[in-house]
Specification:
By secondary structure, the protein is mainly beta. It has two domains: 233 residues, Immunoglobulin-like; 225 residues, Immunoglobulin-like (Sandwich). It has four helices and 33 strands. Strands 22, 23, 24, 25, 28, 30, 31, 32 and 33 form a nine-stranded mixed β-sheet that branches. Strands 2, 7, 8, 9, 10, 13, 14 and 15 form an eight-stranded antiparallel β-sheet that branches. A seven-stranded antiparallel β-sheet has the order 16-17-18-27-26-21-20, with no helix packed on it. It is elongated, with a radius of gyration of 25 Å. About 12% of the residues have low confidence.
Amino acid sequence: VSGDLSFSIETEWNGVDVHHAPINITFSLSSDQELVVSMEAPYFNSTNPNTNLVQEDTCPQRPGEAIYDFEASLSFTCKEKIFNFLELEHVVVEVFFLNENDDYLEMELAPNGQYLNILLSGSRNDLLTYLPFLGDQVEVNNPCHEQTEPGCVWTGNVTIPTEYLPANITKFNAFAVHGEMENGELITHYESLFPVDEESSGVTEPNFHYLDAFQSIDLGEIGLVNLKESELWIQAKATPQSFSNMYKVHEAYGCTKKAQFGANFSTKRSNGKLIFNVTVSELGQVNYDIPTTQQQPGDSKRLLDTSILNGCLLMTFFTGPNDELFDLPHESVWASFTNEDNLAIRFGINPYGAYLVNLLDDSNILANVTLVDENSLTCSTPTNSFWSCQLSIEDQYFPKDVKYFQLVHHHQPLLSDENKPLPDFEIISASCLGTLEGQPIGGNTLRDLDWVGCLTDNRNFLDPVVNSEHSNIWIGLKPELTTSTTTPLPTTTDNTNKATILNLTMG
C-alpha cells in the first residue's frame, strides 16, 4: 500500500483548460476498509436553489434528483409543497468506477450535501438508483454560503459502502458541472478529469457516460481489494431482478440522538408480493406500555393458529385492522410508499400483531385493508427485550410508480421493575431523517412526520413492470386514474374522521 491516490480536474469535457482553480479528488481507505472519496472544489457564488433539503443542521441530506441538471426547470411535488430546480449554479462533483464488464457506479455530491448513487451496466443502462448513504457516510463542509468574495472552497468526504462498488474495478473518471453567469447569460461548464478527443471519438457534446474516455486505476494501491461481486450487484443484474434490503432505524427523527435500542427492517421482492420483516431488540428488560385494546391481533381479537419456528412461538392472524394503532400510537413500526401524485400505502404493526394498512390520497385515507390470508402476518410472541413480525403485501396495493419511502419506529416502553418511564420514554426513529423545507417543524408525533420520505427506486420493492400501471384496486378507489370502465367498490362511512373509507380485503 503506497498511500492515497490524488487527482485534479483541470480540463473541460473536450480538453479545454478550465479558468478556475482545479477540483481536487483523493481516494483513501477508511478504518473499516471502505473507499473514501474526498473532494475540494471552488464554490460558484449564486442563489441557493430550493432543492428539497433537510432542515435540521444535525441531519444528513437525502438522495437528490437531477442534482447535476443546471439549466432545466424541473419540479416535483412532495405533500403540498412544490420544489423547483431552477438554474442551479452550484458545482456538482461526480466520480464513476468501472470494471471490464462495463458495470459501474456513478456517485455525485453537491455542496449542500445532497447526493446521488446509481448502479449501471453498459453506458447509461441504469440498474438501480437513489442508493442511500447512512449516518456519517457523507460529510460536507461548506463555509461559502455567506461569502460574496470569489475563491471560496467547499470540501466533502464520502465513504462508499463496498457493496455499491462493482467487482474488479479497473477504470474510472471524475467530472464536475457548474453554471456561471457570463455577460448576463447562464453558461454551464462540464469538466472531466479524462476528457474526450472530439475528432477521434466523434463525441461532439458533453457525455460523462462515454466509457472509452475512462482510464486505468489500481485501488489496490490504497489497500482496497474488491474481487467478489456483492450481493447487491448480483441481484441488480439478475433477470428478473429480486432485491433483498436491510435497513437499520436507530436514530431519532430530528437527528438529536441515537436510540439505545433499534428496529431492523428488511424487505424482499417475492412472487408479486413485498415481504416486510421487522425485528426490535432492547438493551434491557422493558414492559411495553400498550393498552389492552392494542394487545390483540387486529380488532376482531381472534387468534387462528400458533406454531413453533426456531424456538419461538409464532402467531398467525386472520383479523381486521386496528384503527387505534395510528390514532393512539404506542410501540409500533411503520412503512410508507408514495408516488409523485401523493398516492400512498402506509402500514403499521405492533408487538402483539395489531396492524393497520391504509391506502391514502395526499394523507387522506381512501381505504383500510384487512388481511385474510393466514400467511399475511406472523409475529413472534413479544418478550421484555425482543419482538419481531413479518408482513406480506401484494404489489397491487401499492400506488403506481412508487418513488419515495419511509420507515418509522415509534418506541414507547416502560421500565420493568418500578414501572417508571425510561429517560427516552418516547422516541420516533426513521430511515429518512429530518424535516424538509416547507414542512412543519416537529416530528415528535406520528402525525408530524414526513411520511413521504426519501427518493427510492421502485425496483427495490416491486416488479417495475407491474408498478408502471395503476392496479384495479387503485382504479376502483379513484376511477379518474383511467378512462376504462371499472365497477365501483362498496363504501362504508367511518364516523371517526367523517370520511368515506373503503374496506378492502387482501388475500
